[in-house]
Specification:
By secondary structure, the protein is an alpha/beta fold. The protein contains 5 helices and 5 strands, in the order E-H-E-H-E-H-E-H-H-E. The chain has helices at residues 11-27, 44-71, 85-95, 110-116, 119-126, and strands at 2-6, 31-36, 76-81, 98-104, 131-134. It is globular, with a radius of gyration of 15 Å.
């Protein structure tokens, strides 16, 4: 089994990384770090440039997450997947026999998530694997 984390260096993802590392360490399972790299709305030559920029952002973000996991002695696998984040996480969870998918939230209201289609909202409705949605910390509050 494994723990799958959607990671993009947002404030919610940073806290979710800490939680995912704790869960992986507690169960002595690898942490699968996933970045959904579907390039939105570009076509032709523009698509190629945009797609590579999105993938590079993912590589940089995941490098930071790998370092944090290494410091905690948690094994990692990295996947940059050319899909939207929710589907990338669902597919990675299936491939890696995930115990749980961990994602951070942006602190948006449930209504906003339902209307705009946030990744946590989509996962809660589409995933057959349990989803742990980690709230973003408030400034000055420690976990």
């Amino acid at each position: 089994m494994s723990v799958v984390l959607g990671y993009d260096e947002s404030p919610g993802a940073a806290r979710a990384l800490r939680v995912a590392i704790e869960v992986s360490a507690a169960f002595d399972e690898p942490l699968v770090l996933v970045y959904g790299a579907a390039a939105p709305g570009a076509v032709g030559e523009e698509y190629g440039a945009h797609h590579e920029a999105v993938r590079e952002a993912g590589r940089l973000a995941l490098d930071h997450a790998v370092r944090a996991a290494d410091e905690a002695a948690v094994r990692t696998t990295v996947e940059i997947i050319d899909q939207k984040p929710a589907q990338a996480l669902i597919d990675a969870a299936a491939r890696h026999a995930a115990r749980v998918i961990v994602v951070g939230s942006w602190g948006e209201s449930p209504m906003r998530g339902a209307l705009l289609g946030s990744t946590p909202h989509k996962l809660l409705h589409l995933s057959s694997v349990p989803v742990l949605c980690v709230p973003t910390e408030e400034p000055g509050v420690t976990a």
